[in-house]
Amino acid sequence: MIEKSIQSCRGTVYYWTNEIVPLQKFAIVFCHGLTADHTLFDKQVEYLANEYKLITWDYPLHGKSRPYEGFTFTNVNEELLTILNQENIDKIFLVGQSAGGFIAQSFIQEFEDKVLGFIGVGTTPFGKNYYKKSELFWIKHYSTIAKMYPYSYYCKASAKASTRTDEARENMYKTLVGLGKKDMLKAANAVYSEFLKVRDEVQFKCPVLITYGEYDNTGYVRKYNNSWAEKTGYSLKIIRNASHNANYDNYSEFNDLLTSFVQSNI
């Protein structure tokens, strides 16, 4: 994967891509979760880089894409569109893990004609009808609560809570340590503030696959995903022996699901 970047008045955004499939007309774009970075998808890159055009990125306020001013979902959509234009990519599959699913859903709302399919990994749907006010309270005050904990404890606890394997846990822990407490709080506040503004559910015109880990105990992820699938009829797959970062915990099973989904929709 080759590191590249784009520049706007808001900051520099970094992304990584491969150059081995020049004739491929689409790319698979991976959107990491809150306070993670592009390395969350290292196992997908290892498995797929010889077969598909891939784009991983540190979306604004994460990883190398700091500092960044003016975070909104609309501005993040614009950054991703600029990346696609720079790479001459017209169509994409979007994979969004946790809050990366918010980024993906927002992009689909604005640029649905560019998206061939969406895979959610431990994410939750847009649309206020899925959420109780008491559940949204914790999202609204996440940064306030997180601020109370010593950051060393927060990093270890968060990494442990979101993973099941040692390798996945180490990846998440290193990312959190590298982010730092100040930027972790800034990212969390920015992403969740934008999420709380969204009222309308995405009306997907592309195929959708919802997934979450068998042992994902993050918030109400399992409840929301089950409701999402039941309401819409979207395919739901539970990834065995995996927690919130299911694509890293059980990358073998997730990679098979991803490959099958892409092959079925091109």
Automatic annotation (TrEMBL):
InterPro entries per the UniProt record, alphabetical: AB_hydrolase_1, AB_hydrolase_fold, AB_hydrolase_sf
Pfam families for this protein: Abhydrolase_1 (PF00561)
The protein's name: Alpha/beta hydrolase
Coiled-coil residue spans: none
Keywords from the named record: Hydrolase
GO molecular function terms noted in the UniProt entry: hydrolase activity
Highest taxon of source: Bacteria
Entry annotated with the keyword Ubl conjugation: no
Residue ranges of domain AB hydrolase-1 in the record: 27-124
